[in-house]
UniProtKB/TrEMBL annotation:
Pfam families: His_Phos_1
Active site, renumbered: 8 (tele-phosphohistidine intermediate), 86 (proton donor/acceptor)
One GO cellular component, as annotated: cytosol
InterPro entries, per database record: His_Pase_superF_clade-1, His_PPase_superfam, PG/BPGM_mutase_AS, Phosphoglycerate_Mutase
Residues that bind substrate: 7-14, 59
Organism name: Erysiphe neolycopersici
Domain of life: Eukaryota
GO molecular function per UniProt: fructose-2,6-bisphosphate 2-phosphatase activity
Protein name: Putative phosphatase
Record keyword Hydrolase present: yes
Length: 322
């Protein structure tokens, strides 16, 4: 099974340098073009998407829709989930990044401690991890092993949350069962696979979850084994759902506080599977793309506005009889 963890296209708050976690920020004109390029690229390069999961926020859903519309053969459905939305940044929502001083760097690296999270009414990392665990248990685990190896899932979400989701997935596998394609190693920003750096707009992480039949990589020279967990992570497969906080947000997400990861489910269901990482923050689909001149690329996309191809009707393919 192949998974694509995709960040949404560029938004008006991205270009304005404004924090927008749970805010429903709109795509820019350039952001919409990015999503279209992504959808075309995946279709052209043989990615047959079977299922799409998306954050319920519009910037992610519109990105998911751009992927869906080019998947003519598989016609995947889009499942919109609040579990996949971005971290609620509380006090920082809607504020200029440049106005927050040194704390802005901590925010961008997602290293705000619990005390500051509480003071600033932010959603804690423990709550993010709990959401990630709920998504894995309720939506992903039943697909692993039950679908063909070429079954492909696209998960469209947000930069901070995608990082937490990836870490939650890593905790389900031992280091010996995770390989990374050699040319991807240089993109890591830390000592192990937890540190993927930031997701660019429409950038995606690509990896396969495959059944272990003796665990022989397709090409030993193409894949490396790399450290996965910090010491504190080893054996850490217990759900963080008990840490779900009751943070305030525009559209509160309600969780079942009794949710736990089933230890037997983890040990038996994923024991015979391994991960191969094939691309980190891939943006090949944006090669050669330049932003529209005159600042129009930074403007909020207006769905009622025609794109240039709409002004030129498709030529009739039937030959005229003379």
């Amino acid at each position: 099974m192949k998974l694509l963890l995709i960040r949404h296209g560029e938004t008006v708050d991205n270009v304005s340098g404004i924090y927008a976690g749970s805010l429903d920020s709109s795509l820019t004109n350039h952001g919409l073009i990015q999503t279209d390029k992504l959808g075309r690229y995946l279709q052209k390069n043989g990615y047959q998407i079977n299922q799409i999961f998306s954050s319920d926020l519009q910037r992610a859903f519109l990105t998911a829709h751009a992927i869906q519309k080019y998947q003519i053969n598989s016609s995947p459905s889009i499942t919109r989930l609040k579990h996949l939305r971005e971290q609620d940044l509380g006090f920082f929502e809607g504020r200029k990044i440049s106005s927050q001083g040194p704390i802005s760097k901590l925010l961008s690296n997602n290293v705000i401690d619990e005390k500051v999270s509480i003071q600033r009414k932010m959603e804690s990392t423990r709550s993010l991890d709990a959401r990630a665990d709920i998504f894995i248990d309720n939506y992903l685990l039943n697909l692993v092993g039950n679908e063909a190896e070429n079954y492909t899932i696209a998960i469209v979400s947000h930069g901070i949350f995608l990082g937490r989701l990836w870490r939650a997935l890593l905790k389900r596998f031992s280091s010996s069962k995770i390989r990374i394609q050699s040319d991807c190693s240089r993109k890591l920003t830390g000592p192990n696979l937890k540190y993927l750096g930031n997701w660019s707009n429409t950038g995606y992480l690509e990896f396969d979850i495959l059944e272990d039949r003796g665990f022989h990589p397709r090409s030993k020279t193409d894949f490396n084994t790399i450290s996965v967990h910090d010491t504190s992570d080893v054996g850490s497969q217990q759900s963080s759902s008990r840490y779900l906080d009751r943070h305030k947000c525009n559209n509160p997400i309600h969780y079942d506080a009794s949710h736990r990861i089933s230890e037997s489910r983890i040990n038996h269901h994923l024991l015979n599977f391994f991960i191969e990482v094939r691309a980190i923050n891939s943006q090949d689909h944006l090669n050669g793309l330049q932003k529209l001149r005159g600042g129009t690329g930074n403007l909020k996309h207006d769905p009622s506005q025609k794109t240039i191809d709409k002004y030129f009707p498709v030529a009739n393919k039937k030959q005229r009889v003379l």
